[in-house]
Design brief:
12-stranded antiparallel barrel, single chain, 12 strands, mainly beta
Length: about 120
């Protein structure tokens, strides 16, 4: 999984988790993403992202991310990511990711992702 796919996977996961409240997440130099609500995410060398609740996500060679909960995420050629529940996310040229449910995430120059 390339860096963009990892960031997108973490942003999508963060957006999904942040539906009810604002969330701030930061990835450290070891690749662990910690969020202020207690969630942590780590992507291993095989490209599998796991959280601290037993969930995992993996992106295959076709660009489809599958979650251990049965969720799937796919990014089309226009940069829109859709899941298998009718939700979608798109990142604009300013780096803001907007969800179809009105949620937004933005990664700042320090690597902190803030969602609301």
């Amino acid at each position: 999984m390339n860096n963009i796919s990892q960031i997108l996977a973490i942003v999508v996961v963060a957006l999904f988790a942040a539906q009810a409240s604002a969330e701030t997440c930061r990835t450290d130099s070891f690749g662990t993403t910690r969020c202020d609500n207690g969630n942590t995410y780590r992507t291993d060398s095989f490209g599998t992202t796991r959280d601290n609740h037993g969930n995992s996500w993996r992106t295959d060679s076709f660009g489809t991310t599958r979650g251990s909960d049965g969720s799937t995420y796919r990014t089309d050629s226009f940069g829109t990511t859709r899941d298998n529940h009718g939700n979608s996310w798109r990142t604009d040229s300013f780096g803001t990711t907007r969800g179809s449910d009105g949620s937004t995430c933005r990664k700042d120059s320090f690597g902190t992702v803030r969602c609301n």
